[in-house]
C-alpha cells in the first residue's frame, strides 16, 4: 500500500523527472543566461550572412486568426530575410512556426519585465535586427522593449480598441510603433473614437495605415478534421445535396462570434423559407461542461425547434470543402476586424450575409459591390428574412466575389505592402533618433520642466515619437517660453512635426516672452494695485494671508465670499496681510471665480484709480485625484507671488514696461480651445474681438496679474449672457471660454502678455 502511494506521488519516467525538476528549480532557479539559452530553438532554415534579419512576434502559435496571419507573413518574408519567430505562448501549431525561421524564441515561461529586454539585446547585438514586426496588439509588452532598444517596429493591430487589452495599451502601441497597419476602417474608427472621447485628440495618428491582409495561402494540416464532402454530408445528415440549402457560420464558440445570433437567424430563415435547410456552425468550443454559453446555445436550438436543422461541426483543417457545398456564408460576429474566414468564403464565391457596423468585411463588401446581404446591426429577424428571399430566388452564381479576392485580397500584394512599410519604418526610426539626439543635446529641452521621464534621452524620444505621429496633446511643452501648440498654429505641422526641433533648425528658441523668477530689478513699484481673492473655500484663508504678506505693503484687498455671515471672520483672518484696506463682498455662487470680480467689484476696480489688479481664488479642483487641486494652487501662487518678497516685487516690476498688460504663470500643459468654440465665438462678438480659432496660451487655472486698462472689456460683459447655473461641465462654458481669451483681449487693447516661471516648480 505504501509503495503504491509513493509511486503515485513520485511516478516513474517522465512524470517523476518533471516533478523532481520542479522541486529542484524552486530550490535553485535557472540563471538568466540559462533561461535565454533554453528559450532559443533552431528553426528549419539556415542563417544567411548576406541577408538582413527580422523578428516576427506572435502572441500564440495557435491556429487562430492573428497567429495564422503571422505564420503566413513569416513564410513569405523568410525568402528575403533571415527570420526569427518570437512566440509569446506555445500552442497547437507550434511546430509550423519552426519551419520557415532560422531561430525560434519560445517565450512561454519568460518573465517579460526582466528577461525579454536581455533576449532582444542579445538578438540585436548578434544579428543587427532590421525590424521587429509585432503581430497583434497583445504583443505590446515586446513592443515596449523594442522601443527602448531603438529598433524599428512595425505593428499589425487587428483588434478593436479596448477589446482584449485596455485602450491605453492600443494608444501606447500607436505611440511606439513606426508604422501601424489596420485591416479595416472600422478598427481605425474604434481607435479615433477613443482618442476623441478620452484623450481629446481629434486627428488620426500619422503612422496608421489601412490594408486588409488578403487570402492566407497556407493553413497547417496538423489541427482539425480533414473531412471530405461525403463525410461532411454524412455528419450533417444530408443524403441528397440537391434537396437542401446549406448555410454556414464558423469560428470558435465565443459570444463575440455570435453563434447565438446564427441560431436566431436560422429560426427566422426557417420560418420564411419553404425548402429544406441545414445550418452548420464549424468550430471548436462547444462543451458539455460549459454550463453557461454552450448550455444556452443548445437550449435555444431546442426551443426554436432546430434540433434537426442545426449542426455543430468540429473544427476543419480547411473550410474549402464545406464551402464547396454551401449556399451562403453567415458572418454573425458582433465585432470582428476582417476575419480570414470571410475572405475564404469570398474566394469560394459564396454570398456573405452579415450585419452593418460589425466588421471590416462589410466595408469591403459595400465598397466593391460584392454579392452580399447586409442588414442593420444584430437584426437577426431581417437577416433571416433576407436569406430566405435569397435562397428562394437563387439562380446561377456569379463569379464576382472570387474575382474581388483575386484583385483586392491577394496575399502577395499584402506582402509587398509590408515590405514597403518595413523600409519606411527603418527610415522613420533613423530620423526619430536624429531628432531625439539633437533635442537631448539642446539646453532648450528642459527635462525637469517637461516632466516626462527622469532620463532626458527617454523624454526627448517620447516627445519626438508623439509629435511625429500628430499626437501633440500627449506631450508637455519642452521649456518655459515655448508652446508646442502655438508653434504649430503659427508654423504648421508640415516639416518633421516636432515643434522644438523645427524651431531650433530655424534658430528660434521661444514662442512667447517668459521671465524666469526671480527677475533682477531694483526699480521701485509705483503702481497702485489691488488684489481680488474669491474665497469660496474659507478654510484656505490662512494660506492666502501668508502669501499676501509677501506683497509690497499698502495695496487694497477685495475678498468675495458666498456667505455674508463669514465676513467678520474673514476680515480678521486677513488683518495681518499687509493690505491698507480689506473689503469683504458677498456674491452669489455663480460664475466661478471671475464673475465675482467682473460683476461684484466692477465699480471698485474701474473707479478707484487702480493700474494693476491681481486675481486669485481658492482653487481646490476637488474632482481631481492625488491632491491635484492643492498642487495646482501652490504652483500658481508660487509663480505669481513666490515665497519671498524679491519674487513678488520682481513680478510687479514687470508692469514698469507700459506695454505689458498681463502676467500669468507659464504652464507645461498642452491645452487648446477644447469644447469652448461656441462660447468663444459669442464672447468675441460681444467684446468686438476678431475670430479666434485656437487658444494656445492663457492663464490656465485663471490666476493672473493684469493692467486694468488691458482687461477693461470684461467689465462690459452682460451678466445675463455669460452666467450659467452650476455645476458647470469640466469643459465647455462661458467661464472656460473667458479664461482662454484673456490674452486676446489684452492684445486687442494694445498691450502684450508675458508668462513667468519659478524654476523647479510643477503641479
From TrEMBL:
Q: What positions does the domain Glycosyl transferase family occupy?
A: 238-392
What keywords are assigned to this protein?
Answer: Glycosyltransferase, Transferase
Q: Does the keyword Glycosyltransferase apply?
A: yes
Which residue spans traverse the membrane? none
State the superkingdom.
Answer: Bacteria
Instruction: Supply the Pfam families for this chain.
Output: Glycos_transf_1, RgpF
Name the record gives this protein: Glycosyl transferase, group 1
Q: Which GO terms describe its molecular function?
A: glycosyltransferase activity
**SUPFAM superfamilies according to UniProt:** UDP-Glycosyltransferase/glycogen phosphorylase
What PANTHER family would the database entry show?
A: GLYCOSYLTRANSFERASE, TEICHURONIC ACID BIOSYNTHESIS GLYCOSYLTRANSFERASE TUAH-RELATED
Amino acid at each position: 500500500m505504501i509503495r503504491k502511494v509513493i509511486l503515485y506521488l513520485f511516478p516513474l519516467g517522465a512524470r517523476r523527472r518533471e516533478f523532481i525538476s520542479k522541486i529542484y528549480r524552486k530550490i535553485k532557479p535557472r540563471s538568466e543566461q540559462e533561461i535565454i539559452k533554453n528559450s532559443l530553438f533552431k528553426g528549419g532554415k539556415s542563417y544567411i550572412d548576406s541577408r538582413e534579419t527580422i523578428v516576427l512576434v506572435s502572441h500564440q502559435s495557435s491556429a487562430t486568426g492573428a497567429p495564422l496571419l503571422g505564420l503566413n507573413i513569416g513564410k513569405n518574408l523568410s525568402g528575403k530575410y533571415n527570420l526569427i519567430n518570437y512566440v509569446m505562448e506555445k500552442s497547437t501549431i507550434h511546430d509550423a512556426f519552426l519551419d520557415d525561421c532560422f531561430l525560434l524564441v519560445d517565450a512561454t515561461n519568460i518573465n517579460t519585465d526582466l528577461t525579454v529586454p536581455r533576449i532582444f539585446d542579445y538578438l540585436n547585438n548578434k544579428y543587427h535586427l532590421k525590424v521587429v514586426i509585432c503581430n497583434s496588439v497583445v504583443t505590446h509588452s515586446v513592443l515596449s522593449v523594442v522601443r527602448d532598444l531603438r529598433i524599428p517596429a512595425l505593428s499589425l493591430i487587428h483588434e478593436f480598441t479596448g477589446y482584449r487589452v485596455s485602450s491605453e495599451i492600443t494608444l501606447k502601441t500607436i505611440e511606439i510603433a513606426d508604422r501601424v497597419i489596420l485591416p479595416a476602417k472600422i478598427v481605425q474608427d474604434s481607435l479615433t473614437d477613443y482618442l476623441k472621447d478620452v484623450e481629446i485628440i481629434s486627428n488620426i495618428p500619422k503612422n496608421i495605415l489601412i490594408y486588409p491582409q488578403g487570402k492566407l495561402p497556407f493553413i497547417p494540416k496538423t489541427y482539425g478534421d480533414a473531412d471530405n464532402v461525403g463525410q461532411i454530408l454524412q455528419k450533417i445528415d444530408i443524403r441528397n445535396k440537391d434537396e437542401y440549402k446549406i448555410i454556414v457560420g464558423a469560428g470558435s464558440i465565443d459570444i463575440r462570434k455570435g453563434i447565438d445570433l446564427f441560431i436566431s437567424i436560422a429560426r427566422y430563415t426557417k420560418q420564411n423559407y419553404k425548402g429544406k435547410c441545414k445550418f452548420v456552425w464549424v468550430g471548436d468550443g462547444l462543451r458539455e461542461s460549459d454550463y453557461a454559453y454552450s448550455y444556452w446555445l443548445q437550449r435555444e436550438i431546442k426551443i426554436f425547434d432546430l434540433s434537426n436543422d442545426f449542426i455543430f461541426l468540429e473544427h476543419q483543417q480547411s473550410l474549402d470543402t464545406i464551402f464547396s457545398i454551401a449556399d451562403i456564408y453567415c458572418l454573425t460576429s458582433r465585432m470582428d476586424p476582417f476575419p480570414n474566414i470571410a475572405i475564404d468564403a469570398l474566394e469560394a464565391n459564396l454570398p456573405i450575409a452579415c450585419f452593418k457596423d460589425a466588421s471590416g468585411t462589410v466595408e469591403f463588401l459595400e465598397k466593391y459591390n460584392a454579392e452580399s446581404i447586409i442588414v442593420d446591426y444584430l437584426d437577426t429577424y431581417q437577416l433571416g428574412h433576407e436569406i430566405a428571399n435569397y435562397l428562394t430566388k437563387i439562380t446561377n452564381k456569379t463569379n464576382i466575389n472570387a474575382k474581388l479576392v483575386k484583385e483586392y485580397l491577394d496575399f502577395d500584394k499584402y506582402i509587398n505592402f509590408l515590405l514597403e512599410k518595413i523600409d519606411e519604418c527603418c527610415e522613420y526610426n533613423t530620423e526619430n533618433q536624429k531628432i531625439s539626439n539633437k533635442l537631448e543635446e539642446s539646453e532648450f529641452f528642459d527635462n525637469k520642466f517637461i516632466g516626462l521621464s527622469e532620463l532626458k534621452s527617454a523624454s526627448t524620444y517620447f516627445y519626438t515619437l508623439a509629435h511625429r505621429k500628430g499626437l501633440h496633446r500627449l506631450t508637455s511643452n519642452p521649456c518655459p517660453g515655448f508652446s508646442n501648440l502655438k508653434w504649430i498654429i503659427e508654423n504648421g505641422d508640415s516639416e518633421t512635426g516636432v515643434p522644438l526641433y523645427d524651431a531650433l533648425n530655424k534658430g528660434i528658441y521661444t514662442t512667447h516672452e517668459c521671465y524666469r523668477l526671480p527677475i533682477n530689478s531694483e526699480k521701485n513699484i509705483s503702481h497702485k494695485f489691488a488684489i481680488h481673492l474669491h474665497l469660496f473655500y474659507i478654510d484656505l484663508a490662512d494660506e492666502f494671508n501668508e502669501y499676501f504678506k509677501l506683497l509690497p505693503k499698502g495695496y487694497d484687498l477685495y475678498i468675495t465670499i458666498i456667505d455674508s455671515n463669514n465676513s467678520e471672520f474673514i476680515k480678521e483672518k486677513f488683518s495681518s496681510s499687509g493690505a491698507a484696506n480689506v473689503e469683504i463682498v458677498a456674491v452669489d455662487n455663480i460664475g466661478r471665480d471671475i464673475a465675482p470680480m467682473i460683476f461684484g467689484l466692477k465699480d471698485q476696480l474701474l473707479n478707484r484709480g487702480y493700474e494693476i489688479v491681481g486675481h486669485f481664488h481658492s482653487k481646490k479642483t476637488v474632482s481631481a485625484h492625488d491632491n491635484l487641486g492643492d498642487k495646482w494652487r501652490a504652483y500658481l501662487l508660487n509663480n505669481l507671488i513666490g515665497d519671498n518678497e524679491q519674487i513678488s516685487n520682481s513680478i510687479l516690476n514687470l508692469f514698469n514696461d507700459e506695454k505689458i498688460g498681463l502676467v500669468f504663470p507659464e504652464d507645461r500643459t498642452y491645452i487648446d480651445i477644447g469644447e469652448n468654440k461656441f462660447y468663444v465665438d459669442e464672447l468675441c462678438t460681444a467684446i468686438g474681438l476678431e475670430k479666434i480659432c485656437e487658444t494656445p496660451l492663457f492663464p490656465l487655472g485663471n490666476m493672473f496679474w493684469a493692467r486694468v486698462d488691458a482687461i477693461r472689456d470684461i467689465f462690459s460683459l452682460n451678466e445675463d449672457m455669460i452666467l450659467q447655473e452650476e455645476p458647470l461641465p469640466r469643459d465647455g462654458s462661458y467661464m472656460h471660454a473667458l479664461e482662454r481669451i484673456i490674452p486676446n483681449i489684452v492684445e486687442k487693447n494694445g498691450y502684450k502678455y508675458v508668462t513667468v516661471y519659478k524654476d523647479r516648480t510643477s503641479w
